[in-house]
Design a protein that fits this description.
Layout: H1 8-22, H2 29-40, E1 48-52, E2 59-63, H3 72-89, E3 95-100, H4 104-112, H5 114-134, E4 154-160, H6 168-177, H7 189-202
Helix pairs in contact: 1-2, 4-5, 5-7
Length: about 200
């Protein structure tokens, strides 16, 4: 695989020091360690080994990898395998992408309390979707949900457009034909927003 013209490590080398200085006190030790690992990955800083051809005596230096799970060099192949595995899990039906976000003040809290806030976010968003989707006034079906968190909120929530019931592939189309939903809308946004806000605050 050819080396990309610009890597994350290149950006860190050029701007990392200034960024760390400008954000001093707002970056965790773990994040600083990740930046350092990416900057040092496959450089002399981590050492390496020399391969030498016995016939032509050509030598080649290979520097060690940082093996940090956040490093795009070390985890590139693993990321591709993970994506392929997730694609294999998808049902052969259309999917809807829904995004649940939090107000900036809560987002700042989530940045330093990911486990707690994300847990609340997952529970509130999942209950919101399943409750509204089950309501006969909207979709009247049991849906499947795949939740994933982004940095400061729920980044990806691909929800199967087809509910898991016997009506299956005809159910959503029939609801739209009866005037229950606009052509490209999975569930009413305002209804989702109100219930999500209430469930999150209640938690």
């Amino acid at each position: 695989m050819p080396r990309p013209a610009l890597e994350v490590a290149d950006i860190f080398h050029r701007h990392g020091a200034a960024w760390r200085k400008a954000n001093a006190g707002h970056v965790s030790l773990g994040q600083l360690k990740v930046m350092s690992a990416i900057e040092s990955c496959r450089t002399a800083a981590l050492g390496g080994h020399v391969a030498r051809c016995e016939k032509c005596e050509h030598t080649q230096i290979s520097y060690n990898s940082c093996r940090n799970r956040h490093c795009p060099k070390c985890q590139g192949a693993a990321a591709k395998d993970w994506l392929a595995s997730r694609e294999a899990d998808l049902l052969p039906v259309p999917y809807f992408h829904l995004v649940f976000t939090l107000p900036a003040p809560i987002g700042n809290i989530a940045y330093y309390n990911k486990a707690v806030v994300y847990d609340l976010l997952f529970k509130a968003s999942a209950e919101t979707l399943t409750t509204i989707a089950a309501d006969p006034r909207h979709l009247g079906a049991r849906i499947g949900i795949n939740l994933r968190a982004a940095q400061l909120g729920l980044g990806h929530d691909p929800s199967p457009a087809r509910p898991h019931d016997r009506a299956g592939r005809r159910h959503l189309a029939r609801r739209r034909a009866l005037g229950g939903l606009p052509p490209r809308l999975f569930l009413p946004v305002r209804v989702l927003s109100r219930l999500f806000r209430r469930l999150f605050l209640r938690s």
